[in-house]
Amino acid sequence: MFCTTVLVSCDNPFYQKEHVFAEDRWNYADTVVFEFEIEDTNRIYNVFLDVVHSKEYGYENLYSKVYMRFPDQTTKYENISLELADNLGNWYGECSGETCTRKFNFKPNAYFPMKGKYSIIMEQYNRVSVMPELKKFTMRIEQTDKVRGTKDVKK
17 is in which domain, residue-wise? Predict the structure, then answer.
């Protein structure tokens, strides 16, 4: 599965960027773009996505098409469902005041095979053209101590 949940904190991420939704709405025609540079193609990374929404958000999940654009301009995409609440309407994640934050381990143990600029592009992919009560997305990429081609030895 592309998107799993985990609660993690990192004081010094390799990359972090917020996208704040104008008027707390994600329109179908609007894309969210996160761009970053990769120099070390052997390093393993963890990619996280934080979704901040109002308690008035009227859905259990949020569907998105997620594109990964590589430095050579090739693109791969995947449809994902970001689960924000259970079927009884109980919010996942942490809620404070009128907002909730759901942290997703978006792409664990990822590696980027080419040096250069990458883009993660998200499109809203729901049955309605405007998703109200979405505050912001934060994309965070953390460098791990792992490198490709090595195995962790457990004793």
Answer: 4-147
